[in-house]
Amino acid sequence: MVMNRLRRELEPRLILVDSVVVDVVLNVEGLPERGSDTYVDRSASFAGGGFNVMAAASRLGLPAVYAGVVGLGPFATIAQDAMRDEDIVVAIPPLAGVDTGFVVAIVEPDGERTFLTSNGAESTLTSSQLDGVDIHTNDVVYFSGYALLHQSNARALLALVQRLSPEVLLVFDPSPLVANIDRGALEVIFERVDWLSCNAREASVMTGASDVIGAAELLLDRLVRGGVIVRCGEEGCVVASSGSPPEKIEGFPVDAVDSNGAGDTHVGAFAALLKQGRGAPDAARWANGAAALSVTRRGPATGPVMHELEAFIAAHDRS
Predict the structure, then answer these.
(1) Distance between CA atoms of 125 and 224, rounded to whole angstroms?
(2) DSSP label at residue 146
(3) Where are the beta strands (DSSP E) in 50-167?
(4) pLDDT (tens digit, 9 = 90+) per residue, 101-122?
(5) Could you tell me the residue ranges of all domains in the chain?
(6) How far is the C-alpha of 27 from the C-alpha of 197, rounded, in Å?
């Protein structure tokens, strides 16, 4: 019994030291004039941010732990209920007196989105809180560039990066706001990161390169260890790792209805598939499949479970 319990405790997990917030999505015919009012066609509130990454990984067999901060209040309740439904463990006790933050997304008929963000408990992470999180050597630690935009979080995360065991797999997504991240902070991460996962626009911002292959090569040159994934939407992704030329991994053609969160699904799926023993190109191909499936579904956290992904990949392999 002791050995069985120890084996379970040492199973790999995704430790997310990022932010879980609540997305409040409002579908409107058009933005109102300043000082006026408008009716909303549809509205919905659901957990977002790093939750999408954890849900994608958990559904593919990699248990997830949220090592960020939740608050107490109506938005925190939405976030905690969503994590409970996905069997995600919350490692840090809730912060009293502060609610979880939220993002209002105003969506117009052509798909254009306007965002209003209100920070909450998730922006208050400290090193002392992370000191209490038990990270095993076979775990995956993930965070995004959004977390580095909060001063307290950035200090805690950079300290964590520098003390992580070399065996721990570190995955980092710089986020669309990568241009706002302190360059010194990025260099600290680039010295330790195992997989840098970004989209083509972010890769171009960081390197100045207009082509994806060239950007992947330049990013790889900046890393001390590890590799680079550059996501290219429906076209798939590029995998670049030391000792081999960058490889284009084709995507899967689907009829997309909602692309929101596809990048998060890709990152979470890639981490889960790596921990199942797949090589990086194969894991990236299956992550492409998970992201493709996710965009065929409306709503948050639309990544597939394993049997859905297996059937999707098998159907495309037969065609």
Answers:
(1) 27
(2) G
(3) 64-66, 89-90, 102-107, 113-118, 140-144
(4) 999 988 888 777 788 999 999 9
(5) 11-30+40-318
(6) 30
Q: Looking at the domain 11-30+40-318, which fold is it?
A: UDP-N-acetylmuramoyl-L-alanine:D-glutamate ligase (3.40.1190)
Listed in sequence order, the residues at least 6 apart from 135 whose beta carbon sits closer than 8 Å to its beta carbon are 15, 141, 164, 165, 168
Q: Tell me: pLDDT of 279 over 60.
A: yes
User: What is this structure's pTM?
Assistant: 0.92
Phi, psi values for residue 23, rounded to 5°? -90, 125
Residue that is written with structure tokens 């550059």 in the block: 230
Give the DSSP letter string of 214-273: HHHHHHHHH-SSSEEEEE-GGGEEEEEETTS--EEEE------S--TTHHHHHHHHHHHH
2 is written with which tokens?
Answer: 């002791």
- Give CA–CA dist 23/231, Å, rounded: 23
Provide the pLDDT for residue 113.
75
Which residue spans within the chain are E strands per DSSP?
A: 14-16, 20-27, 42-49, 64-66, 89-90, 102-107, 113-118, 140-144, 169-173, 195-199, 227-231, 236-241, 247-250
For residue 139, give the amino acid letter. Answer: D
Please tell me the predicted confidence (pLDDT) of residue 9.
54
Segments of 119-189 assigned E as strands: 140-144, 169-173
Bridge partner residues of 105 (DSSP)? 25, 115
Residue 13 burial class via C-beta count within 10 angstroms: exposed 0-12, middle 13-18, buried 19 and up: buried
Q: Is 247 exposed, middle or buried (0-12, 13-18, 19+ CB in 10 A)?
A: middle
pLDDT in tens, 52-81: 999 999 999 999 999 999 999 999 999 999
Please enumerate in sequence order all residues whose Cβ is within 8 A of that of 151, keeping only pairs 6 or more positions apart, or say none. Answer: none
